[in-house]
């Protein structure tokens, strides 16, 4: 069984903001986290350009640039008021996510903080292509913050399935809990729909054996993370649930009043070439609290 080792400190935060209302939560929590962790904070805004439109009406890009600079300066003033210094970065071009990822690589960021779009109509089912692509290509963890969400550092929920992504999430959650003085709940979900059609038509005894095997794996996963957390001096409890992973994670966060969910970008069934696993995506879209997505090593 692989050992869970707490990760390092949140040293360099890259806040990506587009100046819209959906960035409000990300701005607030990035500043708060930078202050709490004594982190270096960089604030990036990307002006998305269209070469054809720019050729016809260059004043549109100029106006957008002015508005973006004013927004960055307002964020800087807000951070300074809370005793946090920050570097301002303004870029322009196509595919904004590439600039976020490039800056994270260049600055060796340990965390990227992004906002999340609204939850009505179709937007409830989509997190936004920029956010999804940043998570898919980012070299570090990504914190996605709903507009109204606040991370009070009191209680962290980490979901683990024993994969390298789950282990990475657990290590990050333990590191943050230790640094922030948070309680930790460790959750493992036995997927109720994990059996293939062939398994479903097998004997009842075979189905029970499959479930028993998954239960034992879940118990081992929770035990492994709990032992590492307790060793780090963190108040920890563990939980095993059956059902759809995304729904179980969201419900547990509500029931436990967790103010941060930590999970891996993919699970055991994740295909690494995909930008993100379906469980992570659904949790991000439906969660009312911030979600920290951790990449596997």
Can you describe what's shown?
This protein is an alpha/beta fold and 297 residues long. It has 2 domains: 1-150, 3-Layer(aba) Sandwich (Rossmann fold); 152-290, HUPs (Rossmann fold). Helix content is 45%, strand content 21%. It contains 10 helices and 10 strands. Strands 3-2-1-4-5-10-9-6-7-8 form a 10-stranded mixed sheet, with helices on both faces. β4, α5 (129-137) and β5 (141-145) form a beta-alpha-beta unit. α4 (96-106) packs parallel to α5 (129-137). It is elongated. The protein starts with 11 loop residues before the first strand and ends with a strand. The model is unreliable at 118-126, 194-202 and 268-275 (pLDDT under 50).
The tally of structural domains comes to: 2
Query: How much of the sequence is in beta strands?
Result: 15-25%
Name the helicity range: 40-55%
- Tally the beta strands: 10
Instruction: Give the strand order, joined by hyphens, for the main sheet.
Output: 3-2-1-4-5-10-9-6-7-8
As a whole number of angstroms, the C-alpha radius of gyration is 20 Å
CATH superfamily of the largest domain: HUPs
Shape label = elongated
Question: Low-confidence parts lasting 5 or more residues at pLDDT below 50?
Answer: 118-126, 194-202, 268-275
CATH topology label of the largest domain: Rossmann fold
How far the N terminus sits from the C terminus, by CA atoms, comes to: 16 Å
What's the SSE pattern? EHEHHEHEHEEHEHHEHEHE
Nearest-integer average pLDDT: 83
At CATH's second level, what is the architecture of the largest domain?
3-Layer(aba) Sandwich
Counting helices, strands and paired strands, the structural category is: alpha/beta
Text of the CATH class of the largest domain: Alpha Beta
């Amino acid at each position: 069984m692989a050992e869970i080792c707490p990760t390092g400190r949140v040293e360099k935060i890259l806040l990506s903001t587009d100046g819209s209302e959906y960035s409000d939560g990300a701005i607030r929590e990035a500043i708060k986290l930078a202050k709490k962790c004594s982190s270096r904070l960089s604030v990036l805004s990307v002006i998305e350009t269209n070469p054809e439109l720019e050729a016809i009406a260059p004043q549109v890009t100029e106006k957008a640039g002015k508005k973006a600079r004013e927004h960055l300066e307002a964020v800087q003033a807000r951070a300074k008021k809370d005793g946090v210094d920050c570097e301002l970065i303004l870029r322009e071009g196509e595919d904004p996510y590439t600039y976020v990822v490039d800056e994270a690589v260049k600055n060796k960021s340990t965390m990227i903080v992004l906002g999340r779009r609204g939850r009505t109509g179709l937007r409830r089912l989509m997190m936004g292509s920029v956010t999804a692509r940043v998570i898919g290509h980012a070299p570090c963890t990504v914190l996605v913050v709903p507009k109204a969400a606040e991370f009070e550092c009191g209680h962290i929920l980490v979901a683990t399935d024993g994969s390298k992504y789950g282990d990475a999430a657990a290590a990050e959650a333990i590191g943050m809990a230790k640094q922030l003085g948070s309680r930790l709940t460790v959750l493992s979900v036995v997927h109720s729909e994990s059996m293939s059609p062939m398994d479903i038509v097998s004997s009842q005894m075979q189905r029970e054996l499959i479930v028993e095997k998954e239960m034992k794996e879940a118990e081992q996963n929770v035990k492994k993370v709990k032992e590492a957390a307790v060793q780090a001096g963190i108040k920890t409890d563990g939980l095993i649930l059956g059902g759809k992973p995304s729904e179980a994670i969201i419900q547990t966060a509500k029931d436990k009043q967790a103010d941060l969910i930590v999970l891996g970008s993919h699970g055991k069934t994740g295909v690494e070439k995909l930008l993100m696993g379906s469980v992570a995506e659904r949790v991000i879209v439906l969660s009312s609290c911030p979600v920290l997505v951790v990449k596997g090593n």
